[in-house]
Amino acid sequence: MRKERGNLRVRLLAFLLTAAMVLAMGGVSVFAEESADQTASGFEDGVYRITVNLWNATQDQASMGNASIRGSQSYNEKHAEDDPDHQALLIVQDGRGVVIMEYMAMGFMGTYGYLLQLDTLENIVYHDWNFPSEYTLKPAQVLAEHRMTDGSIAVDNYNDPESEYVLEAANGKAYPHILAVPVDLPDEPVTQSWDESPWVHVFVPVMYAISPSSGDQLARLVLDYSNMTKVEDLSGEVEYWLYQAMQLTRGTASDEKWQALQGVIAETKDKLSNTLVRIDLLTTGTGTPMAPVPVRTAEEMDETERKEQAAKLQAAMEALTAADPADPSGLQTVLGRAAGLDESIYTEESWQALMTEVQAGQALLADGTATTEQMTEQAQKIADAIEALETRKADYTAVDQAIAGANALNPDDYVDFSAVTAAVGAVVRDKPASEQAEVDAMAQAILDAIGALEKKNTALDRYNLADGVYSVEGTMVKAADKTAYSMSNDAINHTMKLEVRDGQYQITMDFKGLTIGSQFGYLGTLRYFASGYTVNQYGIPEGTLEDVTVLSYQTNADGTAVSDRFSEEYGLQYPDVVTFPLIPEAMEEGYVPLQVFVPIMENISDGTGTQQVYLKLDWSTLKATTADDPGFTDDDEPEQNGTEETPPAGTGNLANNTNRLPSASGSSLKNSTAAARKTGSTVYTGDTAPTALWAGLALAAAAVSAAVLYQKKKSSRE
After folding, report:
1. CA pair distance 336, 333, nearest whole angstrom
2. Is the dihedral of CA 59, 61, 65, 71 positive or negative?
3. For residues 238 and 301, is the Cβ–Cβ distance under 8 A?
4. Chosen CATH of 463-704 out of 3.40.50.1000, 2.60.40.1850, 1.10.599.10, 2.120.10.30
5. CATH tag for 8-319 (out of 2.60.40.1850, 1.10.287.3510, 3.30.460.80, 1.10.3720.10)
6. pTM across the whole model
7. CA 291 to each of CA 64, 67, 163, 286, 674: distance values in angstroms, whole numbers, following the listed order
8. Which is nearest to 505 in space by CA: 586, 568, 618?
9. Alpha-carbon span 293 to 286, nearest angstrom
10. Tens of pLDDT along 534-576?
């Protein structure tokens, strides 16, 4: 992409060419068919230069991936060798926008990598605190890829099939270089705040290899509308003309003309893609050993070549306007086929579906302006409707209802469920209507088997448990959405001990070590929110924090207390088994609001060690047990992919505990020094902002070693 230059003649020619194509061939323009110089949105139709930044999804700060957008604030700060005035292109037409921008290599954790995927979000359903919980991803359109001058793909450690760190999602794939991204324009051309900017989804393998949550996440695309400038000369804007050409449809054009356009499109993509000579990593100046700056050496088109290539695209697009006459033969053939069918042997629904398509086809034949493409498309719809015709069959409504009733039952709730299973398995489908009586008998057999069921009397009422010991499964989840696992989830045994005495409920948790990146550590402190807590706009719990009671501490195999540089720095003794009362809200909702302090995370980045999380109890797993239930003890300690700082794993357990609640004088797990620095219950922690956490990880890892530490992960993506 190049800066605009004033050339009124070329600009006028480009405008007339585009208008002629749209009017002559009915092709697809960039946006929906409307006509307005000044749209209702307040934006004047045209092409603009604009600065684009990738922003954090939940905080007012640049995303780590922002350094990969050419011309962004983060990119310009690192790349003094590049054009500081480079900006993305914004195409505005009829109140809708498309931004064309370049994605470059970015340095991370001692190496570099590329963005693999960028998607916009559609059909968004928001949480109460305005964070997307459900949505549909729409991939951005790729105009060019990162390729070497010989056409081979540019590789890093994550798409190179020969690399030991290759990710399944990126294996052998080309990274996108130039993308076209649709954006919803604001009412006026004024820069939006970050939390009003469009949502996007990004996947960056180099970040994903370190932390899936930071490499595969949501972000905001912030466009600086207030400072955009209009492009007056489009003669050398190859990316703009390529995008326009890629939006056209064949219409009535001949195969020769259509293939000619596709050939120029492919040639243009190659010239924009096959440019990379090499990548040099700058580790001084704006770069560091752990956050190097990838300096790109490329052989790209000069200004003259760009204008020549843009002219080729325009010529091919103009040639496409002389569309060939429409050919109705295919539609006529399939209409004749439909006319020869016998309505009486098909179901009413499938026949009506066919008639709807037949009527649409007849209307196209009567319309003298229909194109070959339109008639071919309708002919296929009629053919599909013919293939979808269904012969009349017996009514299975009663059978389906009976099966639905059986499926709604839990076999474990009954003494013997085999008769129901057998009755459902005996159903034979697709019988003709003449055998309706047999079909009805199948339904009755299922209902009779259900009616004969004898229910077990083993259900536990969690609200009225007798005194004793119970087990219930639990996981640590992030406070922001109560769904995604918290990092502290790896530091607990997931079978909780629930003890009831005199109607009072007490939860006991067993901790273990966890690995973050290349470091191994333990949970330092745990506190719980007293009954009556509330949540803020982001879903983070707030209220009175109480200390849990420590039953045992982490010990080495010889019985000595586990100690490492984190425990010494924060003045901690790592807890192994703790207990605390279960607040009433958790009985109803299953969510226990907690505050954890993980020294290893605090050491990586100040403020990320203290986190508000929920212990999510799965009441469906509640069962009576005994105090010596082996499920209460540690799961296997995680593998320590450690450095020389990796401490030994703790061996503390519940072996010396009895089926008794601790007395009021029991040891209490008090705040550590670090926890005292982060006691505010409204702290918005890294658990809800994984990008910030891993930015801290990169900085901390740089101070430890200049070597690159990778985790070898194979991952697939839906």
Report:
1. 5
2. positive
3. yes
4. 2.60.40.1850
5. 2.60.40.1850
6. 0.45
7. 11, 11, 21, 9, 28
8. 586
9. 7
10. 999 988 999 999 999 999 999 999 999 999 888 888 888 999 9
